[in-house]
Amino acid sequence: MTLDDLPVSESATVTAIGGTRALRLRLMEMGLVPGTQIDKLRVAPLGDPVELRVRSGRLSVRRHEARAIEVSQ
Amino acid sequence: MRRIVLAGNPNTGKSTLFNRLTGGSARVGNYPGITVSPYEGKLVLPSGEATLVDLPGTYSLTARSLEEQLAVDVIDGRGDHSVPDLVVLCADATNLVRNLYVLLQVQEFGRNVIVALTMLDEAGGAAPDAVALRGALGCRVLPVNPRTGEGVEALKTAIEQAIDQPRPEPLWRFEPSPDLQVAMTDMQEATGFGRGAALWALLSVGDDDLEGISDEGRAVAARVTDRFDDEVVEGRYRWLDANIAPLLADDASDEVHASTDRLDRILLHPVLGFGIFLALMTVLFQGLFTWSDPFIGLIESGFGWLAGTVLSVTGPTLLGSFLADGLVGGVGSVLVFLPQIMLLFLLLSLMEDTGYMARVAYLMDRVMKPLGLHGRAFVPMLSGFACAVPAIMATRTMERKRDRFLTMMIIPLMTCSARLPVYTLIIAALFPAGRVLGIFPTRGLMMTGMYLFSVVIALIAGFVMSRTLLPAPPSPLVLELPPYRLPRLIDVWRQTWRGTQHFLKDAGGIILLAAVVMWGALTFPRIDPTEVVGLGEDAVAAAQLEQSIAGRMGHAIEPVIRPVGWDWKIGVGMIGAFAAREVFISTLGEVYALGGDVDEADVTLREHMKAEIKADGKPVWSPLVGLSVMVFIALGAQCTSTLAVLKRETKTWRWPAFLFVWMTVLAYVASLAVYQGGLALGFS
Fold first, then answer.
1. How would you label B579-597 residue by residue, b for 16+ Cβ within 10 Å and e otherwise?
2. In angstroms, rounded to a whole number, what is the distance separating the alpha carbons of residues B13 and B19?
3. Which helix (H) or strand (E) holds A43?
4. Out of B97, B260, B473, closest to residue A31 by CB
5. How far apart are CA B375 and CA B460, in angstroms?
6. What is the complex's ipTM, to 2 decimals?
7. What is the distance between the alpha carbons of residues B560 and B566, in angstroms, rounded to a whole number?
8. Which residues of B touch A30 (CB under 8 A)?
9. Whole-angstrom Cα distance, residue A7 to residue B397?
10. Closest CA to B348 of B252, B277, B284
């Protein structure tokens, strides 16, 4: 499943990153490489973007980008 | 001069450290042709001075855009940049693995590096041991607290010891696969780059707007495309996870972020958080309007007094008029922006330094997305409702050039405070004070209508431009939400002052020049004194104005402005308004021989407007004409200061010229549609 399908306040492990090359590189360089543990913390009031906990930092990505991140629980 | 580069992720205390090391001697480095220039300052060492270059905060050296390329150009010593003698990498101890990713890239270039480890007080028990870290990283690690200054002297000593060391061999943390080895060798041959730069190019080139990459290099990159992205990024992180992560205490993140998480539960709450956000934005917006108002009034009356004093010394001579109305008035028209600019930069720096700005981007991203913009565009756009000049300067907080330019093209359409006096005058003079449906005051409703009109037009314009003139792939939002931190007032003040200096130095001259030119257009050619013998002072001024270049232009453009319902006197007012919109009122006052001191609340001016009649005996100022004037004021690019600051921010005249032409055409067409449409519907 993708990160977009992951319910809020659940944790998962990144298995693959898709999307365009620029997006993939950006996500991976920000620490979202396969094998990384992430928590989906919350969704913004207007429904987009979502906030994640990644490697002791807080990142926010749009749902469109979240659909490019494959995770497994 | 020896060069030291200060690099690192955003939100690591890097700017504070820079200010500590340079003692606030920072200046914008002068690199022609780029809009984002790094700051440079002097660092005094026992062995002599060195230049310290403050790079924009960056998570990685990989680049797609020209702005992102700056970091790698400075570190690699490409183009106009010489090879740095030392790189000081600022790293946040609370998020060390990701912060050190860019260090590995720097080490691949074979640079002398010192790590300045910050935020140790926040990391608390999770803080890594500097000695162990030094062993793992193979470079000095200095604990520093930029806020208190603790460790800064030790860092300076370490810099002194390291700066004259020979450059180390490039340090690679992963073994490139045979295929990658071949590709790097090909890239080196094609570009003349070193190994580190060759790897950088393999990951960066492709669908980019980078400079200085040879066609042969592009061909190599195109051949391999993204084949090595995973290998390289995962290789670096694998090393970090194996060698750095074990040095950190487990569960560090929860401890560090506990207070931030508690705050975010409130500030990002779907209802409460959004309410607080709206309240804060109201304060910001109202603040720009009302708090700056007394200062603006003070500056205006101060310069008014100065102009009066000058005139009382020189008498009503041409020189006196030039000094008082041209020069003193011109300087005043520059300084009158300072209260709003300083206030906006103060509020922006506060939001940036506390970490709230990232939350604004997070909360408002959904609203900005249809324009292909990030949530970061929201605050500059909101500021545009107070004044476009500081708002355009505020777009500096945006990373992507295309996003900045699009935002700068939309901001001048927002209903700024200079339009309000014109609206007030016309609505009060031409529209009855009744109520619609017995509840809503007509005049208030019209004012609200003008605001809505500007927002709708701005959104449509932004939507069209984001698909035609400034197209871009929707840029992915990967936004860090940094921990909340107390801002240091000295840093906030420095940022505010820097912004103010930019405005004064670069835009101030153009605004002053425009004011003097406009004075000339209203003053020359001089009227023959014998023709106006016996007339009162205001009547002479009116005759002089009609005689002037601006007055003649008002007559000359009559064929063009008649279809929008204006006579030549309104035309002269509009020409005056190209200096600044509120000048419309004082110019109109002069044309009507009421003197130039009238303002929007002036009853005589309102009565005079109502009494003006055309040759056929009908009033000049019908409500329809008033609407046509207001629409032109709403959409026209009538503000030399906006154009001047746009020139300063884009470093070319192309964008201000484009803005001027398209907004003026839009304004004319819209006024024409309103007036002719109104006539067709039977209004007069």
1. bbbbbbbbbbbbbbbbbbe
2. 10
3. strand A37-43
4. B97
5. 18
6. 0.96
7. 9
8. 59, 98, 478, 480
9. 33
10. B284
- Which residues neighbour B394 within 8 Å (Cβ) at sequence distance 6 or greater? B344, B345, B348, B379, B380, B383
Domains by residue range for chain B, with CATH:
2-163 (3.40.50.300), 178-252 (no CATH), 509-680 (no CATH)
Q: Does A5 reside within a domain?
A: no
Are the beta carbons of B139 and B114 closer than 8 angstroms? Answer: yes
The answer to whether the CB atoms of A61 and B478 lie below 8 A apart is: yes
Distance in angstroms (rounded) separating the CA atoms of residues B659 and A9: 47
What is the tens place of the pLDDT at every residue in B369-383? 888 888 888 888 888
Domain around A37: 11-72
How many Å apart are CA B28 and CA B104, to the nearest integer? 28
- The pLDDT of B601-608, averaged and rounded, is 84
Which pLDDT score is estimated for B32? 39
Tell the burial category of B485 from Cβ atoms under 10 Å away from its Cβ (0-12, 13-18, 19+). middle
Across the interface, do A22 and B476 touch by the CB < 8 Å criterion? yes
DSSP B235-299: HHHHHHHHHTGGGSPTTHHHHHHHHHHHHHHHHT-TTHHHHHHHHHHHHHHHIIIIIHHHHHHHH
Per the CB < 8 A criterion, the answer to whether B165 and B6 are in contact is: no
Residue the block writes with tokens 């440079």? B40
Compute the average pLDDT of residues A44-67. 91
Dihedral of the alpha carbons of B494, B495, B501, B503, in degrees to the nearest 10 = -160
Q: Which of A17, A26, A29, A65 to mutate to probe the B interface, most B CBs <10 Å? A: A29
Among B64-68, B90-94, B414-418, B515-519, the range scoring the smallest mean pLDDT is B64-68
Measured in whole angstroms, the distance separating CA B353 from the mean position of its chain's CA atoms is 17
Yes or no, beta carbons of B95 and A56 under 8 Å apart: yes
- Give A71 to chain B, closest Cα distance, Å: 17
Average pLDDT value for residue range B656-663: 94
Q: Number of structural domains, chain A?
A: 1
CB contact under 8 A, B253 and A45: no
pLDDT at A46 over 70: yes
Q: State the smallest CA–CA distance between residue A45 and chain B in angstroms.
A: 4
CATH number for A35:
2.30.30.90
CA distance A2 to chain B (A): 17
pLDDT bucket at B474, cuts 50 / 70 / 90: low
The contacts of residue B683 (CB under 8 Å, 6+ apart) are B622, B623, B624
Between A and B, how many residue pairs show a Cβ–Cβ distance under 8 A?
A: 119
Q: pLDDT tens digits for B547-578?
A: 889 889 888 999 999 999 999 889 988 988 88
> Is position A1 within any domain?
no
Quick check: is A4 in a domain? no
For residue B126, what is the nearest residue in chain A, using CA coordinates?
A56
Task: Say what the pLDDT of residue B357 is.
Answer: 86
- Single pTM value for the model: 0.83
